[in-house]
Protein backbone atom coordinates (compact mmCIF):
# COMPACT_ATOMS: atom_id res chain seq x y z
CA UNK A 1 0.00 0.00 0.00
CA UNK A 2 1.30 3.36 -1.07
CA UNK A 3 0.84 5.89 1.71
CA UNK A 4 2.46 8.79 -0.18
CA UNK A 5 0.75 12.09 -1.36
CA UNK A 6 -1.91 11.90 -4.17
CA UNK A 7 -0.71 12.10 -7.68
CA UNK A 8 -1.02 15.44 -9.52
CA UNK A 9 -1.94 15.82 -13.25
CA UNK A 10 0.99 16.12 -15.43
CA UNK A 11 1.99 19.43 -16.90
CA UNK A 12 1.22 18.12 -20.39
CA UNK A 13 -2.49 17.63 -19.57
CA UNK A 14 -3.07 21.16 -18.19
CA UNK A 15 -3.29 22.99 -21.60
CA UNK A 16 -5.84 20.44 -22.74
CA UNK A 17 -8.08 21.18 -19.79
CA UNK A 18 -7.75 24.94 -20.25
CA UNK A 19 -8.57 24.65 -23.94
CA UNK A 20 -11.62 22.56 -23.14
CA UNK A 21 -12.87 25.18 -20.69
CA UNK A 22 -12.31 28.01 -23.21
CA UNK A 23 -14.03 26.07 -25.98
CA UNK A 24 -17.01 25.35 -23.74
CA UNK A 25 -17.27 29.02 -22.81
CA UNK A 26 -17.22 30.04 -26.48
CA UNK A 27 -19.93 27.51 -27.25
CA UNK A 28 -22.09 28.91 -24.45
CA UNK A 29 -21.54 32.49 -25.65
CA UNK A 30 -22.49 31.61 -29.23
CA UNK A 31 -25.57 29.77 -28.01
CA UNK A 32 -26.60 32.76 -25.89
CA UNK A 33 -26.15 35.14 -28.84
CA UNK A 34 -28.17 32.88 -31.11
CA UNK A 35 -30.89 32.57 -28.49
CA UNK A 36 -31.06 36.32 -27.92
CA UNK A 37 -31.19 36.95 -31.67
CA UNK A 38 -34.19 34.64 -31.90
CA UNK A 39 -32.84 33.00 -35.01
CA UNK A 40 -32.53 36.33 -36.92
CA UNK A 41 -28.82 36.83 -36.56
CA UNK A 42 -28.19 36.01 -40.18
CA UNK A 43 -31.46 37.47 -41.53
CA UNK A 44 -31.33 39.86 -44.48
CA UNK A 45 -31.24 43.50 -43.43
CA UNK A 46 -31.67 46.65 -45.49
CA UNK A 47 -29.37 49.61 -45.02
CA UNK A 48 -31.15 52.96 -45.04
CA UNK A 49 -29.87 56.50 -44.83
CA UNK A 50 -31.70 59.48 -43.34
CA UNK A 51 -30.46 63.05 -43.76
CA UNK A 52 -31.18 65.39 -40.84
CA UNK A 53 -30.53 69.12 -41.12
CA UNK A 54 -30.91 70.12 -37.48
CA UNK A 55 -29.08 69.13 -34.34
CA UNK A 56 -29.18 65.42 -33.46
CA UNK A 57 -27.50 65.81 -30.08
CA UNK A 58 -28.61 62.81 -28.02
CA UNK A 59 -28.73 60.34 -30.93
CA UNK A 60 -26.09 57.63 -30.61
CA UNK A 61 -24.95 54.61 -32.58
CA UNK A 62 -27.15 51.72 -31.54
CA UNK A 63 -30.20 53.92 -30.96
CA UNK A 64 -33.41 52.12 -31.87
CA UNK A 65 -35.34 52.72 -35.08
CA UNK A 66 -39.02 52.04 -34.38
CA UNK A 67 -42.29 52.09 -36.30
CA UNK A 68 -45.24 52.91 -34.04
CA UNK A 69 -43.44 51.40 -31.06
CA UNK A 70 -42.12 48.28 -32.83
CA UNK A 71 -38.35 48.14 -33.16
CA UNK A 72 -37.28 47.45 -36.75
CA UNK A 73 -33.54 48.08 -36.42
CA UNK A 74 -30.88 50.34 -35.00
CA UNK A 75 -28.54 53.16 -35.96
CA UNK A 76 -25.19 51.92 -37.26
CA UNK A 77 -23.36 55.15 -38.09
CA UNK A 78 -23.68 58.92 -37.83
CA UNK A 79 -21.77 61.25 -40.11
CA UNK A 80 -21.51 64.85 -41.26
CA UNK A 81 -21.80 65.92 -44.90
CA UNK A 82 -21.19 69.29 -46.57
CA UNK A 83 -22.81 70.26 -49.88
CA UNK A 84 -20.56 72.87 -51.50
CA UNK A 85 -23.07 73.56 -54.26
CA UNK A 86 -25.78 74.66 -51.84
CA UNK A 87 -23.40 75.63 -49.02
CA UNK A 88 -25.12 73.64 -46.31
CA UNK A 89 -24.42 70.82 -43.89
CA UNK A 90 -26.45 67.68 -43.41
CA UNK A 91 -26.14 64.77 -41.01
CA UNK A 92 -26.52 61.37 -42.69
CA UNK A 93 -27.69 58.72 -40.24
CA UNK A 94 -27.31 55.13 -41.44
CA UNK A 95 -29.41 52.36 -39.93
CA UNK A 96 -30.05 48.69 -40.59
CA UNK A 97 -33.68 47.60 -40.75
CA UNK A 98 -35.21 44.15 -40.90
CA UNK A 99 -38.12 44.38 -43.35
CA UNK A 100 -39.05 40.77 -42.66
CA UNK A 101 -40.47 41.92 -39.33
CA UNK A 102 -43.40 43.45 -41.23
CA UNK A 103 -45.83 40.73 -42.24
CA UNK A 104 -48.00 41.41 -45.24
CA UNK A 105 -51.45 39.84 -45.24
CA UNK A 106 -53.23 39.35 -48.54
CA UNK A 107 -56.83 38.70 -49.41
CA UNK A 108 -58.43 36.06 -47.23
CA UNK A 109 -55.73 36.46 -44.55
CA UNK A 110 -53.05 34.58 -46.50
CA UNK A 111 -49.52 35.71 -45.57
CA UNK A 112 -47.24 37.24 -48.15
CA UNK A 113 -43.62 38.23 -48.31
CA UNK A 114 -42.41 41.25 -46.34
CA UNK A 115 -43.06 44.74 -47.67
CA UNK A 116 -40.41 46.57 -49.61
CA UNK A 117 -39.12 49.74 -47.97
CA UNK A 118 -39.26 51.57 -51.30
CA UNK A 119 -43.01 50.94 -51.38
CA UNK A 120 -43.43 52.30 -47.87
CA UNK A 121 -41.41 55.41 -48.72
CA UNK A 122 -43.59 56.05 -51.76
CA UNK A 123 -46.66 55.81 -49.52
CA UNK A 124 -45.29 58.52 -47.21
CA UNK A 125 -42.95 56.82 -44.75
CA UNK A 126 -40.91 59.51 -43.00
CA UNK A 127 -38.29 59.57 -40.24
CA UNK A 128 -38.37 61.91 -37.26
CA UNK A 129 -36.26 62.22 -34.13
CA UNK A 130 -38.07 61.63 -30.86
CA UNK A 131 -37.04 61.78 -27.21
CA UNK A 132 -36.39 58.48 -25.42
CA UNK A 133 -36.04 59.98 -21.95
CA UNK A 134 -36.31 63.49 -20.62
CA UNK A 135 -33.73 62.67 -17.95
CA UNK A 136 -30.98 61.38 -20.24
CA UNK A 137 -31.93 63.37 -23.34
CA UNK A 138 -31.32 60.38 -25.59
CA UNK A 139 -33.06 60.30 -28.97
CA UNK A 140 -34.36 57.58 -31.23
CA UNK A 141 -35.59 57.47 -34.83
CA UNK A 142 -39.36 57.21 -35.21
CA UNK A 143 -40.80 55.99 -38.53
CA UNK A 144 -44.39 56.71 -39.52
CA UNK A 145 -46.50 57.82 -42.45
CA UNK A 146 -46.36 61.61 -42.66
CA UNK A 147 -47.11 62.33 -46.31
CA UNK A 148 -48.68 65.69 -45.43
CA UNK A 149 -45.46 67.01 -43.85
CA UNK A 150 -42.70 68.75 -45.77
CA UNK A 151 -39.80 66.29 -45.98
CA UNK A 152 -36.06 66.64 -46.58
CA UNK A 153 -34.55 64.35 -49.19
CA UNK A 154 -30.94 64.75 -50.41
CA UNK A 155 -30.33 61.50 -52.28
CA UNK A 156 -29.49 57.93 -51.35
CA UNK A 157 -26.05 56.42 -51.17
CA UNK A 158 -25.04 53.48 -53.29
CA UNK A 159 -26.82 50.33 -52.15
CA UNK A 160 -28.97 52.18 -49.59
CA UNK A 161 -32.58 53.28 -49.41
CA UNK A 162 -33.19 56.88 -48.41
CA UNK A 163 -36.01 57.60 -45.98
CA UNK A 164 -37.01 61.30 -46.08
CA UNK A 165 -36.94 63.14 -42.77
CA UNK A 166 -39.23 65.72 -41.18
CA UNK A 167 -38.43 68.23 -38.48
CA UNK A 168 -39.67 67.89 -34.93
CA UNK A 169 -42.11 70.27 -33.27
CA UNK A 170 -39.26 71.81 -31.26
CA UNK A 171 -37.26 72.38 -34.45
CA UNK A 172 -40.29 74.02 -36.10
CA UNK A 173 -40.63 76.39 -33.15
CA UNK A 174 -36.91 77.11 -33.23
CA UNK A 175 -37.06 77.88 -36.97
CA UNK A 176 -39.97 80.27 -36.41
CA UNK A 177 -38.14 82.00 -33.56
CA UNK A 178 -34.99 82.28 -35.65
CA UNK A 179 -37.02 83.99 -38.38
CA UNK A 180 -38.30 86.65 -36.00
CA UNK A 181 -36.67 90.03 -35.57
CA UNK A 182 -36.42 89.86 -31.79
CA UNK A 183 -34.56 93.17 -31.53
CA UNK A 184 -37.33 94.98 -33.36
CA UNK A 185 -39.99 93.28 -31.25
CA UNK A 186 -38.23 94.32 -28.05
CA UNK A 187 -37.93 97.90 -29.31
CA UNK A 188 -41.64 97.94 -30.20
CA UNK A 189 -42.58 96.65 -26.75
CA UNK A 190 -40.40 99.28 -25.11
CA UNK A 191 -42.03 102.00 -27.22
CA UNK A 192 -45.49 100.74 -26.31
CA UNK A 193 -44.55 100.71 -22.62
CA UNK A 194 -43.33 104.32 -22.83
CA UNK A 195 -46.52 105.40 -24.59
CA UNK A 196 -48.67 103.70 -21.97
CA UNK A 197 -46.66 105.29 -19.17
CA UNK A 198 -47.00 108.75 -20.71
CA UNK A 199 -50.71 108.28 -21.32
CA UNK A 200 -51.40 107.07 -17.79
CA UNK A 201 -49.43 109.93 -16.24
CA UNK A 202 -50.94 112.70 -18.39
CA UNK A 203 -53.24 115.33 -16.77
CA UNK A 204 -55.98 114.49 -19.25
CA UNK A 205 -56.25 110.96 -17.87
CA UNK A 206 -56.42 112.31 -14.32
CA UNK A 207 -59.16 114.75 -15.34
CA UNK A 208 -61.06 111.98 -17.11
CA UNK A 209 -60.83 109.73 -14.07
CA UNK A 210 -62.11 112.56 -11.86
CA UNK A 211 -65.06 113.14 -14.21
CA UNK A 212 -65.81 109.43 -14.22
CA UNK A 213 -65.77 109.43 -10.44
CA UNK A 214 -68.14 112.42 -10.32
CA UNK A 215 -70.45 110.76 -12.82
CA UNK A 216 -70.49 107.59 -10.74
CA UNK A 217 -71.36 109.61 -7.63
CA UNK A 218 -74.19 111.40 -9.49
CA UNK A 219 -75.54 108.08 -10.68
CA UNK A 220 -75.47 106.75 -7.13
CA UNK A 221 -77.42 109.78 -5.85
CA UNK A 222 -79.94 109.45 -8.68
CA UNK A 223 -80.39 105.78 -7.89
CA UNK A 224 -80.99 106.61 -4.22
CA UNK A 225 -83.64 109.24 -5.12
CA UNK A 226 -85.35 106.85 -7.50
CA UNK A 227 -85.30 104.21 -4.82
CA UNK A 228 -86.97 106.57 -2.33
CA UNK A 229 -89.60 107.70 -4.84
CA UNK A 230 -90.28 104.38 -6.40
CA UNK A 231 -92.88 103.48 -3.74
CA UNK A 232 -95.19 106.51 -4.28
CA UNK A 233 -94.72 106.31 -8.03
CA UNK A 234 -95.77 102.68 -8.06
CA UNK A 235 -98.83 103.46 -5.92
CA UNK A 236 -99.84 106.30 -8.27
CA UNK A 237 -99.31 104.03 -11.25
CA UNK A 238 -101.53 101.37 -9.65
CA UNK A 239 -104.27 103.93 -9.01
CA UNK A 240 -104.02 105.28 -12.58
CA UNK A 241 -104.22 101.74 -13.88
CA UNK A 242 -107.35 101.12 -11.81
CA UNK A 243 -108.95 104.32 -13.11
CA UNK A 244 -108.07 103.37 -16.65
CA UNK A 245 -109.65 99.96 -16.20
CA UNK A 246 -112.85 101.53 -14.85
CA UNK A 247 -112.90 104.05 -17.73
CA UNK A 248 -112.47 101.24 -20.21
CA UNK A 249 -115.41 99.47 -18.58
CA UNK A 250 -117.55 102.58 -18.93
CA UNK A 251 -116.48 103.01 -22.55
CA UNK A 252 -117.33 99.39 -23.26
CA UNK A 253 -120.78 99.81 -21.70
CA UNK A 254 -121.39 103.03 -23.68
CA UNK A 255 -120.27 101.32 -26.86
CA UNK A 256 -122.69 98.50 -26.16
CA UNK A 257 -125.53 100.98 -25.68
CA UNK A 258 -124.60 102.84 -28.88
CA UNK A 259 -124.52 99.54 -30.72
CA UNK A 260 -127.95 98.65 -29.40
CA UNK A 261 -129.28 102.09 -30.42
CA UNK A 262 -127.77 101.71 -33.87
CA UNK A 263 -129.38 98.30 -34.25
CA UNK A 264 -132.72 99.80 -33.20
CA UNK A 265 -132.29 102.69 -35.63
CA UNK A 266 -131.48 100.29 -38.45
CA UNK A 267 -134.61 98.32 -37.69
CA UNK A 268 -136.63 101.55 -37.49
CA UNK A 269 -135.27 102.88 -40.79
CA UNK A 270 -135.77 99.80 -42.91
CA UNK A 271 -137.55 100.57 -46.23
CA UNK A 272 -140.66 98.67 -45.13
CA UNK A 273 -140.68 100.26 -41.64
CA UNK A 274 -143.69 102.49 -40.76
CA UNK A 275 -141.50 105.59 -40.32
CA UNK A 276 -139.98 105.27 -43.76
CA UNK A 277 -143.36 104.62 -45.36
CA UNK A 278 -144.79 107.65 -43.54
CA UNK A 279 -141.92 109.86 -44.75
CA UNK A 280 -142.49 108.67 -48.29
CA UNK A 281 -146.20 109.37 -48.15
CA UNK A 282 -145.59 112.85 -46.67
CA UNK A 283 -143.19 113.68 -49.47
CA UNK A 284 -145.69 112.51 -52.06
CA UNK A 285 -148.50 114.54 -50.48
CA UNK A 286 -146.30 117.64 -50.40
CA UNK A 287 -145.54 117.15 -54.07
CA UNK A 288 -149.22 116.81 -54.94
CA UNK A 289 -150.10 119.88 -52.83
CA UNK A 290 -147.42 121.88 -54.61
CA UNK A 291 -148.80 120.83 -57.99
CA UNK A 292 -152.37 121.83 -57.01
CA UNK A 293 -151.24 125.20 -55.73
CA UNK A 294 -149.31 125.77 -58.94
CA UNK A 295 -152.49 125.18 -60.96
CA UNK A 296 -154.39 127.62 -58.69
CA UNK A 297 -151.71 130.28 -59.14
CA UNK A 298 -151.84 129.96 -62.89
CA UNK A 299 -155.62 130.41 -62.78
CA UNK A 300 -155.39 133.53 -60.59
CA UNK A 301 -153.60 135.62 -63.20
CA UNK A 302 -149.99 136.46 -63.72
CA UNK A 303 -149.87 139.84 -61.95
CA UNK A 304 -152.05 139.31 -58.91
CA UNK A 305 -150.67 139.37 -55.36
CA UNK A 306 -152.23 136.00 -54.72
CA UNK A 307 -150.19 134.47 -57.49
CA UNK A 308 -146.96 135.85 -56.03
CA UNK A 309 -147.74 134.48 -52.57
CA UNK A 310 -148.75 131.18 -54.07
CA UNK A 311 -145.52 130.94 -56.04
CA UNK A 312 -143.51 131.69 -52.91
CA UNK A 313 -145.49 129.06 -51.02
CA UNK A 314 -144.95 126.63 -53.90
CA UNK A 315 -141.22 127.19 -53.78
CA UNK A 316 -141.21 126.55 -50.03
CA UNK A 317 -143.27 123.40 -50.44
CA UNK A 318 -141.07 122.18 -53.28
CA UNK A 319 -137.93 122.68 -51.20
CA UNK A 320 -139.59 120.97 -48.23
CA UNK A 321 -140.65 118.05 -50.44
CA UNK A 322 -137.13 117.69 -51.90
CA UNK A 323 -135.54 117.86 -48.45
CA UNK A 324 -137.97 115.27 -47.12
CA UNK A 325 -137.31 113.01 -50.11
CA UNK A 326 -133.54 113.44 -49.70
CA UNK A 327 -133.84 112.60 -45.98
CA UNK A 328 -135.86 109.53 -46.81
CA UNK A 329 -133.31 108.38 -49.41
CA UNK A 330 -130.37 109.03 -47.07
CA UNK A 331 -131.94 107.12 -44.20
CA UNK A 332 -132.84 104.30 -46.52
CA UNK A 333 -129.26 104.02 -47.87
CA UNK A 334 -127.36 104.88 -44.64
CA UNK A 335 -129.47 104.23 -41.54
CA UNK A 336 -126.49 104.98 -39.23
CA UNK A 337 -126.47 108.60 -40.41
CA UNK A 338 -129.29 109.18 -37.94
CA UNK A 339 -126.63 108.67 -35.23
CA UNK A 340 -123.44 109.83 -36.93
CA UNK A 341 -124.85 112.78 -38.88
CA UNK A 342 -125.01 113.53 -42.57
CA UNK A 343 -121.73 112.87 -44.40
CA UNK A 344 -119.98 115.95 -45.69
CA UNK A 345 -119.90 116.36 -49.44
CA UNK A 346 -116.49 116.76 -51.05
CA UNK A 347 -115.97 120.18 -52.68
From TrEMBL:
Pfam family, one: MlaD
UniProt entry keywords in alphabetical sequence: Membrane, Transmembrane, Transmembrane helix
Residues spanning the membrane: 16-36, 48-67
UniProt key word Phosphoprotein: no
Segments of this protein annotated with the region Disordered: 326-347
InterPro entries membership: Mce/MlaD, MlaD_Phospholipid_Transporter
Positions of the Mce/MlaD domain: 49-145
Coiled-coil residue spans: none
Superkingdom of source: Bacteria
Keyword S-adenosyl-L-methionine recorded: no
Xref: PANTHER family: INTERMEMBRANE PHOSPHOLIPID TRANSPORT SYSTEM BINDING PROTEIN MLAD (PTHR33371:SF4), INTERMEMBRANE PHOSPHOLIPID TRANSPORT SYSTEM BINDING PROTEIN MLAD-RELATED (PTHR33371)
UniProt-recorded name of the protein: MCE family protein
Highest classification ranks of the organism: Bacteria, Pseudomonadati, Pseudomonadota, Betaproteobacteria, Burkholderiales
Amino acid sequence: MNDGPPSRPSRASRPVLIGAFVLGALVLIVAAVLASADGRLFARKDSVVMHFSGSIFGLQVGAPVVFRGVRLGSVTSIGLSYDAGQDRFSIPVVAELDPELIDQVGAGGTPRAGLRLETLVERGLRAQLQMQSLLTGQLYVDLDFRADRQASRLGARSGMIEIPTVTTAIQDIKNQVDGMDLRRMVDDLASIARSVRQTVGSPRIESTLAQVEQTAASLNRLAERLDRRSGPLLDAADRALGDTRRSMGDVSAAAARVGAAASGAEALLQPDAPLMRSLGRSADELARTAAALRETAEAAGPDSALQQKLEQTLDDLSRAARSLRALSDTLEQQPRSLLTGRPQELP
